[in-house]
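Troubleshooting log. The previous run stalled partway through. Resubmitting the same two chains, unchanged.
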Amino acid sequence: MSDTDVPARLDELQSRIRRYHQVELEAVMEVISYLREDGDRVIFGGSLTLGLGNARSDLDVLLIGPPGVDGSRLPLEHWIDGLRVDVWKLTERLVDGVFLQVERALASEGPIDGAFGDVGEQADLKLLHRIVSGIQVEGEPLELSTRLGAAELARDLVSREYGERMRDSAYLAQVGAATGHDLAAAVYARGAVEEAAHAALAGMGVPFTGDKWLRERLRDFPEMEASYAPFAVLPEGPGTSAEFVAAALATCREWTGADLAAPLLAARATWRLGDLRLMPIGDESLLLSVELGALWSLEPAEAAAWQRFGEAGAWPCEECDAEQDSLAFALHVAGVAKLDWSQGLDLERSRLEEAVSA
Amino acid sequence: MRAHDVDARRYVWARGNALWLMGPPISQWMEDLEGAAAEGQSGLVRHVARQIGETCAAMAVLAEKREKPMPGIRCRAAWALARTEGSDVHEECLALVRGAAEDEPDEEIVDRCRRLVAVLQERVGTVPNVLSADGYYPGMALVRDWLELLTAVGEPSILPSEWTKGAEDA
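Second attempt completed without errors. Output:
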């Protein structure tokens, strides 16, 4: 966003927090003044600065200070009447370091694998976007030692991270549907579509605001919103997931250009089975994880499927037969087996733009 | 004196996760839900309702079955709903996870979520909302007690890693 937008965005932000909380931005600046340092930057960020948010939304404030100041990755919470103000006090060095890590990660062929914020915690993903999409009200522009610009890095990180999540979800949806796990398959299929939407929106330069605002974001893109609509409610009943998954893969491809067919993905994926080991006890076959303190009984066919790979601890997906896929997926839903990727998924920007504009 | 009829480590793990891994997000989701409904943000209402259905199902499994391990967020709904079948909260949790229809009024969705959350909080208990002005310090004090209990039984911290990550590199 250009600096010329700042006065208009600031007016809009002021008008919203006045309407919701009868709070002035001057009061915010006064409350956080005890955290300020000479020469620091003040950036307002979060959903309220991006035309989203509501009366229950907090206001994020980044204070980015020169080297030598004390900082914290945890926000300091403040309340001004009903408005919660979360303040991150960071050093230039830390911010520069995060952007450098992003640049290195994007240049690597390895998967990002949630390194900058996973599904549960979107810490650095959000931090980067607060910086590049927030409203800087004081201080000099941030200078980074990266080759690429901050906005470009933040955009490409979201596309890459969400592209990889989409790939993961798409593969799991297909295995789930093929092995009779209809609900899990449908949940993953819807997830893949939503992750594809995030990747595509980021590719178009739309600021990242986290998963929860996706559907409000899609209102600005009526064609994408219409394409998403069939996935908003999961199908009901056994045997319904295969069609839903197929449609989801088609939508992901339409938005990102990525071919997500299971055989293609299986060549790069491996099931990691942790410390699981088969313990035959008389006629029973028990699967034990000491690390997790958990034990499962296997049916004879499942035990045979397990034994075909021995105690390897890692099953290459392309070598799995249907029974091994079924067992691995069941163990995945039980919180044990994890999918590992040998390579990242770089959604080419030109492909993204082409796919979305089409 | 009343004995807890389960292995101490399992009990502390399950109750600790139900209270601290599920409790604060549910408080936050309910705030989001009410804010979204008031603003007519029906997409956000539907997204949050899904999270509430999923989190309540997982809370029910932890509270009633103390099943371990618990999978990551992306397949937690399927894990939990396979284990709540037959319970009184299953149908509502499933309906919320599947997704509310476009023509259902936002306020009805909010009411459904409010009722479901009240049932689960009655069973599991509540913790102070650390994202509120009056809940921050009581919440921090209580979580410190829980961390001592978890350490005593040999279970790892239940705090979000975000709370403790990177403190040294700021």
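Takeaways: The two ends of chain B are 47 Å apart (CA to CA). Residues 29 and 48 of chain B are 6 Å apart (CA to CA).
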